[in-house]
Amino acid sequence: MTAVTMDGVSRWFGNVVAVNDVTMTLEPGVTGLLGPNGAGKTTLLHMMAGFLSPSRGTVMVGDQPAWRNPAVYRHLGLVSEREAVHGFLTAGEFVLASARLHKLADPAAAAAAALDLVEMTEFKDRRIDTYSKGMRQRTRVAASLVHNPQVLLLDEPFNGMDPRQRMHMMELLHRLGGEGRTILFSSHILEEVEQLSGTVQVMVSGRLAASGDYREIRRLMSNRPHVFAVSSTDDRRLAVALMAQPSVAGVELAPTGLTVRASDYGGFTRSLPKIALKEGIRVSRLTPSDESLESVFSYLVEA
Amino acid sequence: MPINTTIAWMTARGLFGRRRFLLLLPLPVLLVALAVFARVTGINSGDWAQPVVNGLGFAVLLPVIALIVGTGVLGSEIDDGTIVHILTKPLSRAEIVWAKFLVASGVTALTAAIPLYVVGVLVESVRFGLGLAAAAAIGAVVYSAVFLLLSLLSRRPVLVGLLYVLIWEGLLGNLVSGTRVLSVEQYTLTYADKIAPTEYLTGNVSLTVSIIMSVIITVVCLGYAVLRLRSFTAASETS
Asked: Average pLDDT, stretch A257-278?
């Protein structure tokens, strides 16, 4: 069974440490690599895919080093973040060329099977530059899967996809993971892993901050207090009414409006309109103020 | 060494599929147009052959075409990131470099040799035309190796290549005789002169030096290109 292992891996660029002493093993199934932008996810993926040498430590695909070793690509597929495709080719030509470059015994059959897997068979004779983002992404996945690799690495595969395309791609990844492949995808958006039923590795500032079951991390996410900024026609009266709610942990009154700390995201957002209606108060502003990724991730790290 | 036809096919399609390809057209057209004009107006060959063949053909057309093609076969794929598709295959890096080099040499040789052959015929004879075409083809091979390597060494291979062609070959090659030993243009002139001797062209470098240097430059550039490609590092802006 081919697994990807990183042992004490660091990578620095000049004075900047991009990845700091990461040790992890990827098992078969779907793994999400999460972290805010600049956390070192891409650097990590590039090292796994043999496009960057580790400054320290070892990166192995199966029992072979990833760096300077084209042989690992027999077992590994990569879907890079940069949406680089030969737009002048059709999906059929592109995937077939990949199969030929892998020197497969029957490239045509392998290409057809890969296109079928990502449900692109019907569009395979159209030029890639006429495709939607999601179709292009699926074509690239097909090209990376054409040699039936044990390991598939995807860098931000959901970037720029609409929710439907995202769901489609997630289903595909699950199917592949269910077949016993090792699938790793990176993402900086927590919501993207909602349907994830595997393990999650969280990177923050180059370090592996958390790793484990997605449900555990989801629970931590939904239990964290949410901070909202609220303005209304009568802030003081609204504050009193809000304090009576079990979903509200605290309210701060300021001349510019209210700062509400909610312990239950759903409970609070559902009860606010009801209260406002009952009290005859008009709410003119409701903005979540701590939704920046950094705050979410740092919360995860502290927990 | 066999050629990987899939890489060659994709490289050729990439080359002709980009608008940059149109840049290859004006120079050959200009060269032939000048020769036709001179011939039609009956100007004495001795007056125009040297500036057209040497000044435009070998000093500008051949290196510029080689630069556009040589940096296009690999450099443009590095630029737009499509190189990753070829690199994530279990192929020896030599196989990749070799296929790209052959495509670059072939396209450059054809694009430069055909107009030079036409010009040679207009200047003097078919033999002179064939001599120019053969010299251009050999020059195309050496230039292609140089510019292919350049696209792996620099993020701005076209700029660096132009500096080499204009400053080193164009300016210094005429002023400082020592630089001629390291000038592909000079080897090409020597080949043309030896294959079809005329009064129009004179080689400044001996044939032996030209052959030895051509081989060394080609082999060293290709070998180093393979090494560079083996350690190809993806640019990670987001890191």
From this structure: 88
Chain B contacts of A77, Cβ < 8 Å? Answer: 88
**ipTM of the complex in this document:** 0.89
Cα distance from A244 to chain B (closest Cα, Å)? Answer: 45
d(CA B109, CA B141): 7
What residues does each domain of chain A span?
A: 4-221, 224-302
- Ranges under pLDDT 50 in chain B: 237-239
Q: Are A64 and A71 in contact (CB under 8 A)?
A: yes
- The answer to whether A190 and A298 are in contact (CB under 8 A) is no
Q: What is the fold, at CATH topology level, of the domain defined by A4-221? A: Rossmann fold (3.40.50)
Does the distance separating the beta carbons of B88 and A84 come in below 8 Å? no
pLDDT over 70 for what percent of chain A?
Answer: 90
In Å, what is the CA distance from B107 to each residue of A5, A173, B136? 44, 42, 12
A133 and A168 in contact (C-beta within 8 Å)? no
A215: pLDDT strictly greater than 80: no
| CATH class, A224-302 region | alpha beta
Tell me if chain B has a CB within 8 Å of the CB of A85: yes
